[in-house]
Amino acid sequence: MERLEKFQIIFNNPTATYCVGDTVYGYGWVIIKEPLFVQSVCLEAVGEAKVEWMTSSDIQASDEEVFNYTTVLPIKSDKGCDEDLLNPGSHYFPFEFTLPSKLPSSFKGKHGRLRYFVRMTICTPGGPHHERTSKFAVISSLDLNAEPDAALPVESDTFEVIGSLCCISGTVTAHIKLPKKGYTVKEAIPVWAEIKNLSTRRINSTRVSLIQNVTFYSFRGRFSESSVLVTIHKGGIAPRGKQTWQKELLSIPTVPPSHLKGCKIIDIQYNLELCIKPSGLGRKVKIPLDIIIGTVPLQSTNQQRASYHPLPSIVSENNCPFPFFENVSDQIMLTEYSFQQQLLPTAPPWEEDDDIP
To answer: How far apart are CA 250 and CA 11, in angstroms?
Structure first.
């Protein structure tokens, strides 16, 4: 690498976040200190999923490639020089590729992840080859209008005894309902609930939580993990008392859509859970409700779109350069404005020292 002063991959989107169907524009920026003879410049864009967990007897793992685009980029040397001889100074290797419409979202969990990255390799005769890798994030699409139950209300109730086996305190009844099953990221879920404490024991607290349930698959088994994403709390309930939730709002954070369609080894589901915690000994009372999180809302309307030039502007040669692409419009419609503002990736672009293969 002693001949290269800089080797960097730059995307047209400063956040390196794209929606399915978008065209990804970018370029490799190389500053050469000495003349360099180049055989080829190869570009590979990859989407891969990997899972791994430990059992009592061994380690189970699996991987899947969900996207691969490979091409050889043209080499533009200075006039009057051999075609593949690069003189000292800055050189740019533009690239573009379109993301398929059925790619799964980027995701990162404790026992698995799905990530996308671009790898550029400058091949020189006799080596060494110079390589740089940079990650980008993908947001998949899940249209709630195509989900059969998304518009239907959901509800559940329970009737449970609280207390220990030797000291029964009475019963608790609870009912929770939602106006529909399908929601989008950043949407607020209105929660209706009624809890009756028919026991002689005080209820310390009640809460409703949004839970992400992830299942990882290998050739020999599967492993599931759950995590609480956001919670809203209510106060306690006195003995023989009642508590009512009237359209309490729970906002959905930035998460990948349900199902993670397009990936066979990772599945994501969501549910809302009402949890009632009695005082003293005794287990908590829990009521789960399955929900669907998508990217296209029910009966969606056209939203404002944002456009900007495919590359940031140049200030000086030492800053981010601005080579214009051929046959590319000055204004590129990248994605929905709401996606740029709301659907930030769950697995953000990594730093240079991350474990990129």
So the answer is: 35
Cβ atoms 266, 257 nearer than 8 A: no
Distance CA 190, CA 203 (A): 23
Looking at the domain assignment, is residue 356 inside a domain?
A: no
> How far apart, in whole angstroms, are the C-alpha atoms of residue 66 and residue 266?
12
What separation in angstroms does the CA of 36 have from each of 8, 29, 66, 123, 179?
17, 15, 35, 10, 65
- pLDDT over 50 (residue 14): yes
Of 104, 128, 123, whose CA–CA distance to 115 is shortest? 104
Domain residues for 241? 144-294
145 to 36, 149, 153, 299, 342: CA distances (angstroms): 55, 9, 14, 7, 20
Residue 298, CA distances (Å) to 145, 181, 184 in order: 5, 11, 9
DSSP 338: H
Does residue 136 contact residue 9 with C-beta atoms inside 8 Å?
Answer: no
The single-letter code of the amino acid at 179 is P
User: Which pLDDT tens digit goes with each residue over 288-323?
Assistant: 999 999 999 998 444 433 333 444 444 444 444 444
Indicate whether 151 and 138 sit together in one domain: no
Residue 236 falls inside a structural domain: yes
In a domain, 46, yes or no: yes
Question: Which one-letter DSSP state was computed for residue 32?
Answer: E
- Report the candidate in 232, 253, 235 with the shortest Cα–Cα distance to residue 244: 235
Cβ(116)–Cβ(46) below 8 Å: yes
> CA gyration radius for the chain?
27
Does residue 262 fall inside a structural domain?
yes
Please list the residues that pair with 44 across neighbouring strands. 70, 119
210-219, 267-276, 291-300: least confidently modelled range? 291-300
Q: Is 174 found in the same domain as 99?
A: no
**What CATH number is given to the structural domain containing 105?**
2.60.40.640
The DSSP symbol for 331 reads S
Angle subtended at Cα 329 by Cα 327 and Cα 332, rounded to the nearest 5 degrees: 130
Domain shared by 195 and 65, yes or no: no
